[in-house]
């Protein structure tokens, strides 16, 4: 008779199979969300859920928050609801990949689905915020440019990260030194907090205090924009280096 694995045993097995986090991962994503995702992944395994099912649950929570931003007037309660829904969705987003590794069922289809959901949410969230603030007329119209800029920046940043990763794989260079697994750097983790998706989710707790929220959100968007510019230069230089050996071989 086969004994069913307990939740604690599943959790322990998941820890041993855990994919190392990049040293550059922001603090909330590394130290909080990854752990929450591990607990959820272990529970999902016990419940017999598939990684794609967990991705679907993540999408339900995330896009429920997006809908609230567009359809409900900003308030303390709506801000709390949005933040909680986004954070839960983010935790499930971390869990799907961990569950796939635990089950040994990682697949291109699962990765594709995960990335498609992520690409939609990073653009839909700021657009929903702009729609909601426009509908309920709670900020000066010029400020609506901030979430519109965020839509473009978020989409380009997400695409840039995915494309850079794929080109690295093609050239046999999986990552840069800054992205390799290693000892956590608290300084780096704190410095990149403004670009942490978890911090963005938490910022919606201030939604009921519109002027304060608008200020914090603007700082996050500005920091993310600067990060994108710096990362783009770094990535382009890396791509130039990766392409050099092949170019030399062609000339020979």
Quick recap:
The protein has 252 residues and is mostly helical. The chain is 75% helix and 0% strand. The radius of gyration is 20 Å and the shape is globular.
How would you describe this protein?
This protein is an all-alpha fold and 252 residues long. Helix content is 75%, strand content 0%. Helix 4 runs antiparallel to helix 8.
CATH class: Mainly Alpha
CATH H-level superfamily = CDP-alcohol phosphotransferase transmembrane (TM) domain
Q: Kindly report how far apart the N and C termini lie.
A: 65 Å
List low-confidence stretches: 176-181, 247-252
Overall radius of gyration: 20 Å
| Oligomer description | single chain
Provide the domain count: 1
**Element pattern in H and E:** HHHHHHHHH
**What percent of residues adopt helix (DSSP H or I)?**
over 70%
The name CATH uses for the topology is: Four Helix Bundle (Hemerythrin (Met), subunit A)
Shape: globular
Total count of strands: 0
Tally of alpha and pi helices: 9
Largest sheet composition: none
Strand content: under 5%
Assigned CATH architecture: Up-down Bundle
User: Helix/strand/pairing class, anyone?
Assistant: mainly alpha
Mean pLDDT: 88
């Amino acid at each position: 008779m086969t004994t069913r694995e307990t939740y604690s045993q599943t959790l322990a097995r998941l820890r041993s199979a855990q994919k190392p986090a990049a040293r550059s991962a922001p603090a909330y994503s590394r130290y909080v969300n990854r752990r929450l995702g591990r607990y959820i992944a272990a529970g999902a395994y016990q419940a017999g859920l598939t990684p794609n099912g967990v991705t679907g649950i993540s999408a339900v929570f995330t896009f429920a928050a997006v809908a609230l931003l567009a359809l409900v007037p900003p308030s303390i309660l709506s801000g709390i609801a949005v933040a909680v829904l986004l954070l839960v969705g983010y935790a499930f987003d971390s869990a799907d990949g961990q569950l796939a590794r635990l089950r040994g069922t990682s697949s291109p289809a699962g990765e594709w689905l995960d990335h498609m959901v992520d690409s939609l949410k990073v653009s839909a969230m700021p657009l929903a915020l702009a729609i909601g603030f426009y509908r309920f007329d709670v900020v000066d119209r010029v400020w609506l440019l901030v979430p519109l800029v965020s839509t473009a920046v978020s989409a380009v940043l997400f695409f840039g990260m995915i494309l850079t990763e794929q080109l690295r794989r093609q050239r046999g260079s999986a990552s840069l030194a800054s992205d390799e697994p290693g000892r956590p750097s608290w300084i780096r983790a704190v410095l990149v907090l403004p670009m942490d998706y978890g911090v963005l989710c938490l910022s919606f707790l201030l939604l009921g205090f519109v002027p304060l929220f608008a200020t914090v959100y603007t700082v996050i968007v500005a920091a993310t924009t600067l990060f994108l510019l710096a990362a783009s230069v770094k990535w382009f230089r890396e791509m130039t280096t990766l392409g050099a050996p092949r170019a030399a071989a062609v000339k020979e």
